[in-house]
Write a structure and sequence with these properties.
With 285 residues, the chain is of the alpha/beta class. The protein is 46% helix and 14% strand. The protein folds into two domains: 188 residues, Spore Coat Polysaccharide Biosynthesis Protein SpsA, Chain A (Alpha-Beta Complex); 33 residues, no CATH class.
């Protein structure tokens, strides 16, 4: 996970050279960095350490995430560590809104998962409505409305844990509805989710992988870069430039015919067609 965070920070610095990068971490993560991955410190501006008081790592990370607007001063752009930056991100902050984000693509069109609507009902929260943000990419202004939203997000996350676990997006939505925060929505290019079989991408500025896929799917670009960083101490500008030019989320041919064709991997796409016609199955990555 620390290698993933390192790759994300390096891709951000590659596009925005003067970015001030703050890694928000709990105390066990600080110890892990110091003992096993000290190289990360030289490529970030600050390691902000908070004692969450929570032993479970996943829950501790959500504690920090939902409290970040309260903990950090100044306007901020939050990025999950399973992201790669390919293009300039200026539209995320070149506006007057308090918060800028991107629709969660699982809920486009106002169709929400049953588990989500049932959770809201159990908590006696108003039913979810659009816009429903993905919390992995957000720009926040440091103003009274932003601070109010941050306090409400953490409060509703704590309230919802017994019903919805440690997920943080439902609590963010509830806080946004309560505070009526001024929102700027951007298109999916600024938070392009990448799964094992991505469809056609347009011009993603941010590729946002699933953490499981980033760690284990060797054909994904982020996995290639993580292995490269571990082996050589650097990441490939050539691979990132190809990804930007071809809107390519993979480091090598993936399992998707359309995705391979769209990113210029024509031979791999043709092989995929033949496998489909002959009934040959791909082995899991």
């Amino acid at each position: 996970m620390l290698t993933m965070a390192h790759v994300a920070s390096l891709t951000l610095k590659r596009v925005h050279h003067d970015a001030r990068i703050i890694l928000l971490a709990d105390k066990p993560t600080e110890r892990l960095i110091d003992e096993a991955y000290p190289a990360l410190r030289k490529d970030i501006s600050e390691l902000a350490v908070v004692d969450s008081g929570i032993k479970d790592a996943a829950a501790s990370s959500r504690y920090l995430k939902t409290k970040m607007r309260v903990l950090l001063d100044g306007d901020l752009l939050f990025l999950d560590i399973d992201t790669l930056i390919l293009r300039e991100l200026n539209p995320l902050w070149e506006h007057d809104a308090t918060i800028c984000g991107i629709h969660d693509d699982n809920n486009l069109g106002g169709v929400f998962e049953r588990r989500l609507t049932e959770g809201f009902a159990a908590l006696r929260w108003p039913a979810p409505v659009e816009p429903y943000l993905n919390s992995g990419v957000m720009f926040w202004r440091d103003n009274a409305q932003g601070r109010q939203l941050g306090e409400a997000w953490h409060r509703y996350w704590q309230e919802s844990r017994s019903v919805m676990g440690d997920t943080d997006q439902p609590a963010l939505h509830r806080a946004m509805v309560e505070t009526g925060v001024e929102l700027k929505l951007l298109g999916q290019d600024y938070n392009q989710k990448v799964r094992d079989k991505p469809g056609i991408l347009r011009q993603p500025a941010i590729l946002h992988y699933e953490t499981r896929s980033a760690l284990h799917s060797r054909h994904t670009l982020i996995n290639h870069l993580m292995r490269q960083l571990a082996d050589t101490g650097s990441i490939s500008d050539q691979m990132l430039e190809r990804a930007r030019r071809r809107n390519d989320p993979w480091g090598s041919a993936g399992p998707g015919i359309k995705g391979n064709w769209h990113t210029g991997r024509y031979f791999a796409a043709a092989v995929g067609v033949l496998k489909r016609l002959t009934g040959v199955k791909d082995h899991p990555a």
